[in-house]
Specification:
2 copies of one chain form a homodimer.
Chain A lengths: L8 H25 L6 E3 L5 E3 H17 L4 E4 L3 E3 L5 E9 L1 H4 L7 E8 L2 E9 L4 E6 L5 E2 L2 E2 L12 E4 L8 H11 L3 E4 L4 H7 L5 E4 L4 H4 L2 H7 L3 E4 L13 E4 L2 H15 L1
Parallel strand pairs in A: 3-5, 11-12, 11-13
Antiparallel strand pairs in A: 1-2, 3-4, 5-6, 6-7, 7-8, 8-9, 9-10, 13-15, 14-15
Helix pairs in contact in A: 1-2, 4-8, 5-7
Chain lengths: 268, 268
């Protein structure tokens, strides 16, 4: 890819505003399907998908293509189009489909905007709770328009750790996760993308997961980083389209380092 | 205890109305502490407790003592008073304190009214979601005033199973729970009392837990039963003050029987 200047604050402000318009547009769509009878199909990776996932993603794609026809799109349900474009949107219409189909309101819509492969804008929308985290490179992250900030937690022994489910870890990853949770103050399950919002707002100190897809984590990155936190893969490398889906998000660099050390010691 | 006629519909209607007044009164109190700095103490059983738990229970006790001075009260934080009374209230001011202190909105206030030891009225209030399930003997359970009903699920292979966390199971109970979850369609963690509300409304088919206290489950019973479901201990016995905290709640008698069979086979 050719090098190009980073996005300007003006571009990011315009795209942030557009991302909010997108989220506003699809909120009623996903809300209307929640707790209504839906046929649930199973995808190749055994994850569930519903008509709600497909309708929300279709609406998002249509709105993006209409406003920015030269932008690429990479979505959970309908794949990639113009993936080589300078600007590419990553879409997860319903993150937490298992929560969604069991009447649990802790699911969300995830939008990220990538500039030459790097996420510069992320949005986590929780339709049933009317909570929305927005992060854009160079600006503080916001929850419903108000700046939010991670906690000051630096030690594992004081940390509250969230993960969606122990079922996301396999083999050595499970052993590493277990080792980590033995050193924290409290671990809780459930949440999908909501856990990362709680981290960005300082309520949770650490989120550690595995088996995530790019559309699951790209939107989280600008939010966590804009709130002052750290998010990487389990070896401390930046997350990207090629990452293997092992995500660690921490309130502080110290906590991030400590968690990586425990995970690393358990897997080597 | 002397025998006495069961409560009349008129009595239950009056107590249901009073229970709603109680929940209305303390909703703003618990909401105001949510996501605000709180010092967290640790109780003898290692569970966390906060000023919010104590303030909410104190407000509930004061309102009950003022309206019904001859009723007994049994609360999570301040113990029993008049436990020998014909009518006794069971109170859990904040069920899901771990969710509460980590900014997760899926916690609730639980109220039950026992008549000679048997729960005849139960209320599950979820302050942050403004959702309230109410059950009273002989009436259909209601969510925010509208009748609700469990699902028609009769087979484990179709069932969605919830539990608060795998960490609530110890020893043989953990093995039994694992055996059960291998036979269901989907398992999810997180939720505390909210899982039972989702069961009463037909979104979740099965909730299986261990280590619960009476104030955790007494309020759930009239709600689950009023919604057409079944709730007992793991051997099918009615839950009471002396139960050992192993709870199974199911949408249908068939599902309840199947789940008990798998749990029993794994523990014997």
């Amino acid at each position: 890819m050719q090098t190009s200047p980073p996005p300007t604050a003006q571009q990011l402000a315009a795209f942030s505003s557009f991302a909010q318009t997108l989220a506003d547009r699809v909120r009623p769509l996903s809300r209307q399907w929640f707790r209504h009878p839906l046929s649930v199909d199973t995808k190749a990776d055994e994850s569930p998908v519903t008509q709600a996932d497909r309708e929300v993603e279709a609406a998002l794609r249509e709105a993006i293509a209409s406003q920015y026809p030269d932008h690429g799109i990479f979505g959970e349900e309908f794949g990639a189009s113009h993936a080589e474009a300078e600007w590419v949107w990553s879409l997860d219409p319903i993150d937490g489909t298992r929560a969604f189909i069991s009447g649990n309101p802790l699911w969300g819509t995830l939008l990220a905007l990538l500039h030459r492969g790097r996420p510069v804008l992320g949005l986590i929308d929780i339709p049933m709770l009317a909570e929305r985290w927005l992060g854009a490179a160079g600006s503080p992250a916001r929850l419903n328009g108000e700046p939010c900030r991670v906690s000051a937690c630096t030690g594992l022994q004081h940390a509250t750790l969230y993960a969606t489910s122990p079922d996301i870890f396999e083999g050595a990853d499970m052993a590493a996760f277990e080792a980590l949770t033995r050193s924290v103050r409290m671990r809780r399950y459930g949440g999908d993308c909501y856990s990362y919002g709680l981290l960005a707002s300082g309520h949770v100190d650490l989120v550690v997961e595995a088996g995530l897809q790019p559309y699951d984590y790209l939107a989280l990155m600008p939010v966590i980083e804009g709130a002052g936190g750290v998010i990487t893969d389990w070896s401390g490398q930046p997350l990207g389209l090629e990452s293997q889906g092992r995500v660690i998000a921490a309130a502080t660099p110290q906590l991030h380092r400590e968690a990586m050390r425990v995970l690393g010691a358990a897997t080597t």
